[in-house]
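pls design
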């Protein structure tokens, strides 16, 4: 079995967002000016958190109307450069979406979907001729198929799953898609050589042990690697359940053409 591995070096675009608890964005505040704050949450099922985001627009009681516009970040920056900040506020009002609030409410939630790449969402709060602006950024991940693979990541059953290795240039990460057959993927950085680095210290596999419940895989970057001679990734880590640990074992992901 032969395969050619290309080393992919891309700039990492960092998503700027506000990590929130679900009760944030409910205080009207006491500012004299119309104010808006944007809170950003992970979009939950049935949405796709890679490309969808949930936003909460929280305003004070001086706001008469609120508009938002989502644009690719490069387009938003170009518009501000050409229109100026005040001109861009008017652009959002003219081209954006008006937020509808329930009676007496000072916050509203929306979900934006299907974003690939870096997007900036801008909201403009209006009272008469006074306008204030806030924005947040979301990076939608575009996973592209890299190689088909055979994944043997269930150390309890030895089950082999045909799946695929994907790459996302915008975050410079790879993922093995659904190696446990539970909808959970393994995401990692790979330099094209031997080194493998995991972002997450633990992965809830979604696989249920018949006696002990859900199994968690705690990968070890130092003991995981790409095995060039066998064209395979060796993912080593500790396998645990709520009751304790099964110990440290390796799973395998084999590339093929």
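designed seq:
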């Amino acid at each position: 079995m032969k395969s050619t591995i290309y080393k992919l070096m891309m700039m990492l675009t960092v998503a700027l967002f506000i990590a929130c608890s679900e009760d944030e964005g409910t205080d009207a505040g006491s500012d004299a000016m119309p104010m808006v704050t944007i809170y950003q949450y992970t979009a939950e099922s049935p949405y796709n958190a890679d490309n969808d985001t949930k936003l909460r627009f929280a305003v004070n009681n001086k706001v008469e109307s609120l508009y938002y516009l989502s644009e690719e970040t490069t387009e938003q920056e170009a518009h501000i450069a050409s229109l100026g900040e005040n001109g861009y506020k008017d652009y959002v009002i003219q081209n954006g979406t008006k937020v509808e609030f329930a009676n007496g409410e000072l916050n509203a939630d929306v979900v934006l979907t299907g974003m690939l790449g870096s997007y900036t969402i801008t909201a403009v709060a209006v009272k008469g001729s006074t306008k204030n602006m806030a924005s947040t950024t979301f990076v939608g991940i575009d996973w592209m198929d890299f190689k088909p693979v055979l994944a043997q990541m269930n150390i309890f059953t030895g089950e082999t799953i045909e799946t695929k290795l994907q790459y996302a240039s915008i975050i410079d990460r790879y993922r093995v898609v659904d190696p446990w057959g539970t909808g959970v993927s393994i995401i990692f950085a790979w330099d094209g050589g031997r080194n493998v680095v995991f972002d997450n210290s633990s992965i809830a596999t979604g696989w249920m042990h018949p006696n002990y419940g859900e199994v968690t895989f705690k990968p070890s970057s130092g003991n995981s690697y790409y095995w060039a001679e066998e064209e395979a990734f060796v993912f080593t880590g500790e396998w645990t359940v709520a009751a304790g640990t099964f110990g440290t074992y390796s799973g395998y992901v084999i590339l093929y053409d």
